[in-house]
Amino acid sequence: MTARILDGTKIRDTIMEELAEQIRDLKGAGITPGLAAVLVGENPASQIYVRSKVKTCESLGLHSEKIEWPADTSTERLLQLVRDLNSRDEIDGILVQLPLPPQVDTKAILEAVSPSKDVDGFHPVNIGNLVSGRLGLVPCTPAGIIEVLRRSGITMQGARAVVIGRSDIVGKPVAMLLLHNHATVTICHSKTRDLATVAREGDILVAAMGKAAFVTGEFIKPGATVIDVGINRLTTEEEVRRIFHDPAPPLEKLRSKGSVLVGDVQPEDVQEKAGAYTPVPGGVGPLTIAMLMANTVQAARLRRGVHRARLVDD
Ligand code: GUN
Description:
Layout: E1 4-5, H1 8-28, E2 34-40, H2 44-60, E3 63-69, H3 75-87, E4 93-96, H4 106-112, H5 124-131, H6 140-151, E5 160-164, H7 171-180, E6 184-188, H8 195-199, E7 204-207, E8 225-228, E9 232-234, H9 237-243, H10 248-257, E10 260-262, H11 267-273, E11 276-277, H12 285-304, H13 308-313
Parallel strand pairs: 1-11, 2-3, 2-4, 5-6, 5-7, 7-8, 8-11
Antiparallel strand pairs: 9-10
Helix pairs in contact: 1-12, 2-12, 3-4, 6-7, 6-12
Bound molecules: guanine.
Guanine is lined by residues 95-98, 120, 140, 169.
């Protein structure tokens, strides 16, 4: 059996078109949603992410501000920045890129963001909203995963869903969203006994533990939908040979590009055993920024008490 590929780039493009239309309507009503992205220090991956987030805002016609501060910024100064952004009316969403430098109290910063502008969905109030099924802002990657499943016609209701990984950013919130969509959810982690056996019960298997190609064929129920959230960069021949059954194509890529991206799922096994899966790259990744844009639009609406139905009626 060859599995169906769930094309995240295509789904992202559709969501972006829908958002562009909603933004046009909002602008017609005199509202331009605005995002402030805060980057502290010079982490290269964070720089790329923030640049990409701001560029996506620009492409959609959203107001955006990139705020870059040096790596030695104190918690107190960052708190002041967040408070300023909380009070500015043209800013609907505040994103503080993680990780923050070690001297900064990350929890204090995330708690200082107004829950109504918390487009990452990391504030305890939004976590509470998510758990209790209230309207709020939902973390972007988990929201993207649900969009992939929904838009690909994968049934969640009554399905056995197994999530591997219990992070605050992905594992826990995606488990909660799957539960709200009426799946029967199991959360696994590094201490789970007989992990492969538990994973193999999943009609939907979400791999979000951050270990390159950890999920192999024996974890996958034949025909299951496998969502791979991992992004791991392989840079040595040895790693590539250890992971791939047929290392020739990825070795070629390693030689030409200098690295090979692999998810948390073994790519050859998933193609053979799954019914459908998200590839790496091109699966869940593209959705994350799209959902950040959706959250910024949602925050602009929620903060002004503008609901979508009313705008459409207008
Ligand atoms: N760093 C890695 N992922 C994320 C994310 O989703 N949001 C923020 N703010 N930082 C991150």
